[in-house]
Amino acid sequence: MTALVAGLRSTYDKRPIAATGPASAVRVGRDAAVAALAGTGAAVTVIDAYPGVRRADLAPLARATGAELVVDTADALLPSTHIDRLVAPDLGTDPVFGRITSLTMDAFFDPLWLAAVRATVARARSAGRRVVVHGVGASFVVPDGDVVVLADLPRWEAQQRQRAGETDGLGGEVTGLRPSQRYKRSFFVEWRVADAHKRAVLARADFVLDTVDGDRPVLVDGDAVRAALADAARRPFRVVPFFDPAPWGGRWMEAVCDLPPSPSNYGWCFDCVPEENSVLLGFGATSVELPALDLVHRHGVDVLGREVHERFHGEFPIRFDFLDTVGGGNLSLQVHPLESYLAETFGAGSGHGWTQHESYYVLDAVDGASVYLGLRADADVDAMFAELK
């Protein structure tokens, strides 16, 4: 702990509520969620899952409703080797960079299996048997469900599951991939496909399922979620921050943000990055955690203004971070290419049709701290480029 942060008392809110709704709109826990779904009396219930939502969490819930037929959409996906070939052109061979995909949800499903699943569900419906279809793309597999549930998940939570070795997603040979490779596959392909699909699902969902805590799912009325998101878009709000180590990490955030001690210094606080952060909606005493990107996608004009919304294709164009070097190392060198290069190399739109500009506000500093604008006069340019290469 440095002298700069010693004795500081944190007032930083790590669980801000963006908007509220009625307590009667939520059912907390698996038993309550099952009772609510079973109580609808729907012939066909569709639980559409975002990539990263655990099949092991949804399958028991689906079976517990008492449905005579339970269908997992993973059974209708293309074989993993086919999916690998499908996504290969967008992923390329670079360990970090790829291209924003133009694939859509239908491309990942086997047409023969898809037809067979739809026929099976139709027969069950005609016979008066209750059906639950769950998994990624469930409302594509069965588009005429009587009750639609969106099982949602923030990208940051999905990343934690990838780091832990979990692989639920859009299929393919992912079990042997490092977390960085899983993130790349998600960033360039799976999340893009899922977000485009999810917009329509969120607009019509009868219920939304908060799946961040698999042991304690929270089922919320779809209308209540949509009303809370609309309320948040009309006033100032904060998202749920998250923290991560970095090579330059320091000790300032640990004290100022009241974080648990970390063996690796905290370098990042993603204070407002809606693509990855979550947003908390309060329903009575219950907090429902959903992707902040849901708010941006549903109310982009309200949040961004029409001109900015159109310029950035509905994406949130600013990343608000804390970068901590107090008691740590020097920040990394940031290099951002021209917009024309980005569009040609990585695909236009969805965060890659524009380049990144950076502005830094120094919130705190130890005595003798310095910031270099450009290279020092004694810098060896040839040596610098050699080390970069």
Supply the key terms:
389 residues, seven-stranded mixed β-sheet, 14 helices, globular, alpha/beta, three-stranded mixed β-sheet, 35% helix
In short:
The protein is of the alpha/beta class. The chain is 35% helix and 18% strand. A hairpin with a 7-residue loop joins β7 and β8.
Globular, elongated, flat, extended or rod-shaped: what is the shape? globular
How does the major sheet shape up?
7 strands, mixed
Residues in β-strands, percent = 15-25%
**Proportion of residues in helical segments:** 25-40%
Computed over alpha carbons, the radius of gyration is 23 Å
Tally of separate helices: 14
What structural category arises from helix and sheet content?
Answer: alpha/beta
How far is it from the N-terminal to the C-terminal residue, by CA?
36 Å
Contiguous runs where pLDDT drops below 50 for at least 5 residues: none
Mean of the pLDDT scores? 91
Largest beta sheet: strand ordering? 2-8-7-6-3-5-4
Find the count of extended strands (DSSP E, 2+ residues): 13
User: Topology as H/E string?
Assistant: EEHEHEHHEHEHHEEHEHEEEHHHEHH
